[in-house]
Amino acid sequence: MPDLPLTIAVGNYDRTRGIIDGRVRVEGCQTSCFPLYPEEIFFRTFRYGEFDVSELSFSSYLRTIASGTSDYIGIPAFVSRVFRHSGIYVRAGSGIEKPEDLRGKRIGVPEYQITAVVWIRGMLQHVHGVLPTECHWRNGGQ
Q1: Contact 74, 61 (CB under 8 A)
Q2: What is 21-89 written as a DSSP string?
Q3: What is the pLDDT along the chain (142 residues), one digit of tens a residue?
Q4: What's the structural domain count of the chain?
Q5: What is the pTM of this model?
Q6: Residues 49 and 8 grouped into a single domain
Q7: CB within 8 Å of 79: residues ≥ 6 apart
Q8: Which residues sit opposite 109 in a β-bridge?
């Protein structure tokens, strides 16, 4: 029986490189890997359903599940690992010394629903007691 063709789109991380370069095989499958930047993967997957297996934005995936429009089934494989605390920047002279000082402040984000921002809102709420509703969120490009 011939191997099943399988397209896989993931970021080029140390945790995915074995599949990308062929050192790790998917048994019974002939894989075609596409190492792309996450933004391109997410766009092509959500817009066109272009890949059989795809790294996805967790928060955007949850939105498709909630709306009943998901063509994908999630598996708990978190291939992108980033220390999310490193994604918070505070303007010098703002008087913000600790996370709790963000109450009542404007916080700029590229998009409210992106996974990194979901993690940061969760840290602010569950570690520092700052509810998302206590901040003024602004979306926009960088």
Answers
A1: yes
A2: HTSS--TTEEEEEEE--HHHHHHHHHHH---SEE---HHHHHHHHHHT---------------GGGG--
A3: 789 999 999 999 998 999 999 999 999 999 999 999 988 999 999 999 999 999 998 888 998 999 999 999 999 887 777 777 788 899 999 999 999 999 999 999 988 888 889 989 999 999 999 999 999 999 987 6
A4: 2
A5: 0.74
A6: yes
A7: 10, 11, 13, 15, 16, 55
A8: 139
19: tokens are 């599949």
Evaluate whether 78 touches 14 at the Cβ level (below 8 Å): no
Q: How many residues are there in the chain?
A: 142
In a domain, 118, yes or no: yes
* Amino acid in position 42: F
Which tokens hold the place of 18?
Answer: 């074995």
Does the residue 97 lie in any domain? Answer: yes
43 and 8, same domain (yes or no): yes
Domain that holds residue 89: 84-139
Say if residues 54 and 72 touch (Cβ distance below 8 Å).
yes
